[in-house]
Amino acid sequence: MKINTDAKKIDELLTRGVENIYPNKAFLEKRLKSGEQLTLYTGYDPTAPALHIGNAITMIKLRQFQELGHKVIMLVGDFTGLIGDPTDKTAARKQQTRDEVLANCANWKKQAAAILDFDGANPVEWKYNSEWLAKLKFADVVELASHFTVQRMLERDMFEKRIKEEKPIYFHEFLYPLMQGYDSVAMDVDGEIGGNDQTFNMLAGRDLMKALKNKEKFVLTTKLLTDTTGKKMGKSEGNVVALTDTPEEMFGKVMSWTDGMIAGGFELCTALPMPEIAKIIKENANPRDQKNRLAYEVVKTFIGEKEATAAQEHFVSQFSKKEMPEEMPKVAAGDIAGALVASKICKSKSEARQVIDQGGVKINEKKVAVGDYAAVVKSGDVIQKGSRWFARVK
User: Fold this and answer.
1) pLDDT score recorded for residue 317
2) Which of 204, 228, 285, 380 has its CA 20 to 30 A from that of 102?
3) Helix orientation angle between 287-302 and 274-283, rounded to the nearest 10 degrees
4) 345 CB-near residues (< 8 Å, 6+ apart)
5) What are residue 218's DSSP bridge partners?
6) Residue ranges of the alpha helices (H) in 127-170?
7) Rounded to whole angstroms, how far apart are CA atoms 50 and 347?
8) Can you tell me whether residue 16 is helix, strand or coil?
9) From the centroid of its chain, how far is CA 25?
């Protein structure tokens, strides 16, 4: 496979959406321009049946390496998924069974194919880390653990926070970065890509590669899609965009993102050149117009141009022109807070009360007053939360 050493494409790879590069940018740039084929990977634990845009951000970076001719591996963490990554978690993850893990990743390859090329002259390799992790003996784990200190493990932000809050830290959670680190050794890679929140785990692999193979593994961390407060888009935040979403769902979810996510969304989730992105933001002062273009580009990137156009037209017709959707969830008559929960518009009554107090709920296009949680909805009434969520009382 001929390696593309085009300086402009390499610069795009090393800068767009990139948070940090270890040991440094110059090290990786030199290797990319050398003409040698590098082997790199990203690991994904099967915590849900659908991949999401957070996953897609690293896949887009993998694709850039693939297009330059480098060997890319998409690693499914079917073993590490049994342990559960403690990153950003204030409590231990609920451990999954092997059947649950395999069921979650059953359709991943088809989803990932919207971004990565699994065919052709330089196909992405698909691997499972149980291939080597399940074969480790206890003596092997002890030997691997000897390369890490308890002090270093306790430096992780989430562990420090749990100690302060007197919440338990389970020993198996210490094993997660060790297992992820061993993935690099087992595959003998040149580098690893992951979100910035995975830095600790990826550097654990860098340390192991140095100790066991005397090899300088590079680590490239991508920026996270966050709002101005630092809160990231993802499953835990409830605003995740799944690659299995319909075009209309994907468009609507992007439109619901906060204004602080617009610039990052363009950079991380679209193929538009950065100068064009700057121009769009400059010429469209209204954040709603910026998000409309962003939503179009996101759907175009992950589903297709035709579908993006149709989704945009649907959104404008249904919401911008204040037309109600023809199909809505049905809910029984009762109080407004209960109806919001029953229709699944809100996850709980506390959330329903919060949205009502923020002025975000209407009955028949009339805003529900602050504190009026017991307002009665009757047959034929239309309940609305924000601009996207509707239910009809049966």
Assistant:
1) 80
2) 204
3) 150
4) 329, 352, 383, 385, 389, 391
5) 191
6) 130-133, 138-145, 150-154, 157-164
7) 20
8) coil
9) 24
Amino acid at 258: T
Mean pLDDT of 333-342: 91
Query: Hey, which bits of the chain come out as E strands?
Result: 18-22, 39-44, 71-76, 125-128, 191-195, 218-222, 330-331, 334-335, 361-363, 366-367, 376-377, 382-385, 389-393
pTM of the model: 0.78
**What value does the mean pLDDT take over residues 127-136?**
95
What tokens appear for 346 in the block? 């809100």
Both structure tokens of 352: 């329903």
Token pair in block for residue 298: 């996101």
Q: What are phi and psi of 329, to 5 degrees?
A: -60, 145
CB contact at 8 A, 336 and 356:
yes
Domains (range + CATH), the chain? 7-222 (3.40.50.620), 245-320 (1.10.240.10), 330-393 (3.10.290.10)
- Asked whether 169 and 159 are in contact (CB, 8 A), the reply is yes
CB-count exposure of residue 148 (10 Å: 0-12, 13-18, 19+)? middle
- Give the number of other Cβ atoms within 10 Å of residue 311's Cβ: 24
- Local structure of residue 261 (DSSP, 8 states): G
The phi, psi pair for 138, rounded to 5°, reads: -60, -35
Which single residue is written with the structure tokens 């001719």?
A: 69
Residues contacting residue 6 through CB under 8 Å, at least 6 positions apart: 68
Eight-class DSSP state of 232: B
d(CA 113, CA 355): 38
Structure-token pair, residue 194? 């992951």
> Please, what is the angle between helix 287-302 and helix 262-269, to 10°?
20
Query: What is the average pLDDT value for the chain, to the nearest integer?
Result: 88
Give the contacts of 58 (CB within 8 A, at least 6 positions apart): 42, 193, 194, 195, 222
pLDDT over 70, % of the chain: 93
Q: What's the alpha-carbon Rg for the chain, to the nearest Å?
A: 23
Of 4, 94, 68, 80, nearest to 42 by C-alpha is 80
In tens, the pLDDT along 152-195 reads 888 777 777 888 888 888 877 888 889 999 999 999 999 999 99
